Amino acid sequence: MRLYRPGVIALALGLVAGVAAVVTITRPAAAEQTQKVSYRGYQVTVPASWPVIDLAKNPSTCVRLDQPAVYLGRSTAQADCPAHAVGRSEGIVLEPLTKATPSAPGLMRRTVKDAGVLATAYYAPGDEQEATELLATGRVTSKTASTQVVEPAAVTPSIVATGKFTGGAFDACTAPPQSTMDAWLPDYQALGIYISGGLRACAQPNLTADWVSTNAGKGWQFLLIDVGLQAPCSNLSSKMSTVPATAYAQGKTAAGNAVTAAQALGFAQRSAIYSDIEAYASTAACKAAVLSYLTGWTQELNARGYLGGTYVGAASGGVDLNSAYGSTSYTHPDNLWFARWNNVADVTDDKYISSTNWTNHQRVHQYAGNVNETHGGVSLNIDKNWADLTPPPPPVTGFGVTGGVNRATLKWTNPAGTTLGQILVRGASGNAAPSLPKYGTAVYAGTGTTYTQTGLANSSSYAYQAWVKDSTGKIGPGVTTRLIGTKSTMTASTSSLVYGGSVTLSSTFTRIDSGAKLTGVPVYLYKRAKNVSTWSYVGPLTTNTSGAVSSVQKPTVSTYYTWGYNGSTGLLGTRSPSYLVQVKPTISAYLSPATIKLGATSVFYGYLNPPHAGTSIYLQRWTGTAWGGVATAKVASNGKYTFTVKPPAARGKYSYRVVWLADADHQGTLTPTKVLTVS
């Protein structure tokens, strides 16, 4: 491949056309070093050194974005472009406004409806301000009738690039017109196209979703190329950072932009996108930057369901990638497209790249470059490649999760026609699923279609991703599903009541991600006696429009309560904190007689309800400073207790009470104080 420094290659004089009727050029005095260029009633001010090229007069001119110029009009004819060019200068393209076209990295666009013009300022990475200033010089000099701007039709990505393919492929700087594509079939059936990147050097007037769809329907396969930041030690001006962490982030950003461009053209998940890293004189620092950039590139593409590929010179990037193939510090690209112009149409390179790496139909070899070929009477300047590629398997479908209490049941459908190796499912707490099969917690690996994970935390959310790994080891796009945690509160009108009393227990159920109330869902009130471990449920009940529910209970023994929601599709079940409601037995007390003569006795008796036959009950007397034990009795089968009271041998008033201590079922209780008078 040939390299072009941005802005250093001048246009041949033969490319500069005469001025058409719709174009006027006003050249100012030399001191100003600017010129005003008008097109269809829209005028911009540009450097006087920029050539102005009218594509209506020269439709085969290659619109070169690596050279400063003003291009007027739009041509989809076969352009006289080199096979490959990399780099970016600054310039502007003014063309008829027919449809809304968004800006892209390196291409800043303005729609000028009053003049019916689309203005595209192209610029090198980091030079956005210059492009903004250039577009700011634009003004409408004469209005045209209102222009109808067509919004691009929504594109559903459906084309996989590349499918299963072994054979010859070519790449050219700009996507050829349809007539050329038709003429070159069936001699070629695959080509490389430059879909994205701030250093694409050729405009792509033919590269549209319709063009892709039409040619895919005719059997063409595609190699998708992104031309972004280059190695720090390359001779190009737009370079990735020498700081590995920054280069990694730059690779991720480039991958995200590339996916956006691919999807706009109709290329679906499972497609491979190749980062074009031109030849460089490697050093240790430069190698670390390139490998970090391509790690970020590959990981981000994989996370989005695409393959990360790279185009490199075999003697530079190929050597560096090969040496780090098994490293745990970097992620190697899924596919390797290497340039070694040895005129041998194969995918091996014993000199620079080991035969044990990228062996699973993952290679493209550019074996010749800058070649003029003619097919069907149409000539192109191309680079020639030999490819051996297969796509990864399609994803599972219907991946979903149903929550239970502390468990998740995952279900999916395996893709038809795929020889499975494994279905890989990994999970993570929170709302973000593991982006790659090496992240998160391993949940499942097998060939089934359902799995139940247990041991999940209460009131927590989980996210899962499932991948198909085929029998060759290739891993397809991941599919995610989320299990949202829920939460329930517990409030009670009292924590202690006497036997026969009641308590009102209430709860509100919410999603933990948004706080939204769970309305109209079945919930349960669970209970267990204090001295047992098994829960039973009361209900079901249904939450109201505020996600709230309540229940009145009359426990006969001390009882724990908890509210529960058992989960549903996408929602994890929950249990509220448990709450203990203590129950005291009722106890009556009688002292007869209440007044006695010195030396006589009285009877202190009463009933404990519920009866606790055979349990001990204690008579106590107030000594003036504390309650002291007097006697112990047993509760009868009907709950009655009886004490014969003989006070001390002194006249006066004596206070007595009876105490029953707590057991496993009930709180302890005591009688009111009774006063015995001795006269």
Automatic annotation (TrEMBL):
It comes from the Bacteria. Residues 187-386 form the Rv2525c-like glycoside hydrolase-like domain. Pfam families: Rv2525c_GlyHyd-like. One of its GO terms (biological process) is carbohydrate metabolic process. This is Uncharacterized protein DUF1906. It comes from Kribbella antiqua.
